[in-house]
Amino acid sequence: MKRLLLPLAFVLLAGGTWAQQDTLKYRILLRDKAATEYSLQRPEEFLSKKALERRHRQGLQLDSTDLPVCRKYVDEIARQGLRVVVTGKWENFVTVSCNDSTLMDKVAALPFVRSVERVWRAPRPAKEVAADRRDSLINQPTVHPDSLYGTALAQIQLSKGDRLHQAGFRGQGMTIAIVDAGFHNADRITAMQNIRILGTKDFVNPQADIYAQGDHGMKVLSCIGMNQPDIMTGTAPEASFWLLRSEDEASEHLVEQDYWAAAVEFADSVGVDVLNTSLGYYTFDDKSKDYTLCQLDGEFSLMSRQAAHLADKGMVLVCSAGNSGMSSWKKITPPGDARNVLTVGAVDKKGVLAPFSSIGNTADGRIKPDVVAVGLGADVMDTDGNQGHANGTSFASPIMCGMVTCLWQACPHLTAKELIELVRRSGDRTACPDNIYGYGIPDMWKAYQEGSKQK
After folding, report:
1. For 449-452, which contacts have Cβ atoms below 8 Å and span 24 or more sequence positions?
2. pTM above the 0.85 mark?
């Protein structure tokens, strides 16, 4: 697998270098994989051992979406004078960059191309890229000798996730990918240094320092992975993590969904079990790309279509519902409208809805959000190395993600889709779900007791 991953790494590195020079990016959807050099009878040539074991364990069959994008097609696109940024095999696309929009006419005429869409345009005048700069550290977090979880006790107790920990299920042997923005100072914060980080990858700019970018991903990580008794314990403190950056905080363009799609396919390739993404999109710098409420059908956005593939590959995606509850939009944001994912709204530590929490349902009538967790006054780590608080479904999602991971550790016989359904059934509103709380606050201990009987 190492040999097979190197070409992709080269493409991504090249994409990061060229991204600073080119002013346009396009997503090219392909018609087929007819020219592939791979075969579903030889999956070890394009899928890792862990990815194959996960599928086998859940009785999942390989299909054409598992086959890589045809190299012959990618090469022909590059010969038109375009630079490949990322590729996505599940939705069969190639994202490219260039300076000349007329090149895309040639690409659109290629027989294997289905459609072409501009997904990024450089701002005018071009913004000067600021040099990476770290926040200063204090690293003197408050000690709470009366609590293993520090001040974070309430946010796990609300769903009885602490009872899973007490039973020995703390995420051991499970791998979580966090697909987010930057992870500022996560490598230097003393209280975070025992988090099991397997690796990092930046899909926005592979040459950047992922630990010197924004702090959103770092705070998300702290909700799950913190493992410092008396300071802060997260909801899956003994899990292992991949930190993946797909969010470009300098702008809001469709191309970030292309980065995200590449990131989750990478997560599949390295054997991830559960993913958290606290990202959502419905409005863009190019206003012609803004979504409408009727497009929240789980199919319209690339990100939502991509998210729906995850459970079919044996992984569980936990994502934030969005923070638009008090705006004119009000609704969930993609990928929160996707099928077979857990979309998480926000409540306070008493279980009362956070007013900003986005609501459902989807345009086609499915219940969303699925569940809720603490996202108002959530306990997180700050970039200075001390504890802090944050508001947003961005933090409700990872708090829930860690508990879902521990539940799956406790019930490894469940498939991804069975696990998602089990969490929904354990909600305190499961008898009458709505478009505000969804199925409500899950009782993870109840879910464990029920899941254990399903063997």
Report:
1. 450/422, 450/425, 450/426, 451/407, 451/410, 451/411, 451/414, 451/419, 451/422, 452/410, 452/411
2. yes
